Amino acid sequence: MNQSRKIILGVILIGIVAFASIGIVLFLDHPITLDSKIQQLMDDGDIPSFAAGIVINDTLVWSKGYGDQPSLDTVYMIGSVTKIFTATAIMQLYDDGTLDLDADVNDYIPFSVRHPMYPSTPITPRLLLTHKSGIASDVSNQTLWDFDTVMITWANDNLGAGLPLWSSRPTLAEFLNGSLNPGGPYYSPENWVSQPGGPIRHYSNTGFLLLAYIVEQLTNTSYMEYLQENVLEPLDMTNTGFNYTDFVGRNAIPYAFRDGQNSVYPHYNQYNYGGGAVRTTVPDLANLLIAHMNQGHYDDSQILSPQTIDLMQTSQFSMSGVEFGGFTYVGQGLGWFLFTNNTIAHGGATPGFLAQIAFKTVSNGKYGILFMVNRGASLVEDNYLVNTFFPSMISTLFDEAARLFNM
Fold first, then answer.
1. Pairing between strand 59-67 and 261-264?
2. For the whole model, what pTM was predicted?
């Protein structure tokens, strides 16, 4: 009897050990999840905080925050993704007949803008939207214009930037007029770089600042007020704005990777309203993406006509073979960049932040991604962030979006 008990007990113990071993194997061999992929990319580069979302057709189906500030109410600056807001505003004015895409911008503003080397060639809204105006990426004194005193002082003290401070800050009209016309107080010959409408596309932040000014002139209101009434409110974007003081306690802390560690930037405001000043959350920005993925429609609002949305997403000229951030360009839309695999996107960077929105069209619908991170490479080189984290995150999120779309 005792011998039988020993045999039975031995069998049970062997079974338990075997089951436990299988359990350990199963635990160690668990499938890699989206969370684990994101967390690994963050851990590998010591990324402080990150927020992302996935849109399927007209719905934000997944969104999540990670890191030190994981709340989806955390407000991030989005850099040049701001340009899609500006393109939207300009195309609303096109939609209602206020603006002609091929008109001379001099018809809309109180001073002249012409390339000094090509004075007979008009600068048009279409050229500005497609970065073919010939205006430099950033005119001289653009950095001084873009950032507030807090940020400039910090950059001087910590990065040796050597930037002067305005003795008296000019108005937007004074800055643009004085930067783009020979003899102006902020003019440099380097403020113009290529023939307007010629073969060279030259990405221009200043060009989108000029577009924001055109919005102000045609609507007799500030650019920010126009966006609030005509874009943010119709899209229920209640956590979007320009001033960090409007989001006290919710602002993502901006960082740069310096000397092997994350270094904190001060909170600051950006003054290139048309090109890089918007701050927002993932749920808010998803609403803008949904509208552009759905013929201008979001919930009960129609912010642009379907025909205008199609025009914005139609190539104005080819850009075959050019690569950036894991994408391969095929063309330039009105504000949007067009890539292979029916992908439309725009990224953004400003000191302490990086952002991306993108979507793909397939035979039976659309799916899109968006993300924001509170580390930037605008003032400090960050090889991991730009060359590994950024393209890997785009690929990771698109893979998950495709999986969800096909479920």
1. unpaired
2. 0.91
